[in-house]
What does this fold into?
Amino acid sequence: MIEALQFEFMQHALLAGFLVSFAAGIIGSLIVVNRMVFLAGGIAHTSYGGIGLAVYFGLPIFLGASFFAVGAALLIAGLTMKKRHRMDTFIGLIWAVGMAIGVIFVDLTPGYNVDLMSYLFGSILAVSSEDLYFMGALLSLILVVVTFWYRDILAVSYDSEYAGLRDVNVKFFYTLILILSALTVVIAIKVVGLILVIAMLTIPVYIAEKLSNSLFSMMFLSGAIATFFTLVGLWFSYTYNLTSGASIIIVSAVSLGVFLLFHKGK
Amino acid sequence: MSVINIKNVSFAYDKQMILENINLSVEEKDFLAIIGPNGGGKSTLLKLILGIIKPQKGSISVLGKVPSKSLTHIGYVPQNTNVNTDFPIKVIEVVMMGHVGSKRPLFGYGKDEVLCAMGALSQVGMEKFAQTKIGALSGGQRQRVMIARALCAHPQILILDEPTSSIDITGQKEIYELIKKLNESITIIVVSHDISVILEYANTAAHINKTLSYHDISDKKQTFHTHGSDEHFCEIELLQMLGTDSCETCEPETLAKWRETK
It folds into this structure.
């Protein structure tokens, strides 16, 4: 493993793993406490439409996926504020339509033979320098938002009705959380793939929630736990020649099982 | 001086009339109990007073202004305090959400906010739990924290929606004793199903079932002596009585005074 660190792709993988895991820990915490896991799943799968479009028009993948995911986030935010009781139906619909668009545009692309699996299950060993800049910029943005608007985000997440009575712009922060989730999902696709991204956003958070008594500590503990899972998963992936995304998720799930076993008595 | 003035207010969702021609005035330091059947419009009336929704007809003034302008002087304790108990948040953070102030620090919370929240917590006897996770408290303790959150804004009016619905009997009594103490300086409005409990503490009662009937119940024995024994009231009998537009004792003075305001 040590000799592998000399390779640039491995250094990129480790740095990407750290950046994405921390972003996923922070945003995953917000997704879980706001009960938006299904929404995040919808956004993740819809973003495949953006990948398809980007491939067809020859644009950078991150760009296409980001625009599509943010569009889906805005659409879902608008729908959930208006038609709350039919929300699950709409999200299911957006979810499927997004993927369908992606598949059709990939079909239409002449001579296309990029590995579809790498977007579904991640390809952390193929992270470029541009990808790293994008990930670093997003993590910085997330850190700025949760630092300066911590109290508003906390108020909206804990009790949105009361936050509204105290002049907090609930709709704005709700939409902001969804947009950040969309962008985080896009960078997480590179690491674990869009099918497994939900596990990365929820498993570390679930463990951290049990160990924290404030949202702040939950976010940072989740980030640390997610980073640990990613690094261990990466090691397994490298040593036994397994798919990196799936290895990270299995490491997370097994750790969760062990955690629950020992935590139950408390 | 009346702190809340509701005149000829009607409200409908789509075409279904929820409240019809409601008139109500709440005086300073009143302890008003709002009672009535489910779906009778109690919560709608609260939302109107809080300015969350606007009436289609009539006018509401709270402390002489439209409701949304006087929000900072109203303390509100919502109904379900048992939701989101897994949320990782400390008691003091919950209470500080209630703080009202124009100045706020760049990040985190100001010293005045912490002090104010601790003051509110000690008012409800929960200062020892400031650093405890909210989920670790009992239902009654959590309700006290929610009251502290409302008090953090130094309200002139405190509105509580079903404050004891998820608390055991002893806890209920403690909560009402606390509210009674707060009533020495604050106007209280309580929406509740616990009719016999609420009547022990309230001095006025409004029964809402689309329309509103108002009763001065500050002298309980006089009001209720015609209905069974003094010590125990049958709730059904009480509800029927408060639901009608007149009861024997309210008829002469209160109702006359009431009609004047219409």
Remarks:
- The longest helix of chain A spans residues 8-33.
- The two ends of chain A are 37 Å apart (CA to CA).
- The mean pLDDT of chain A is 89.
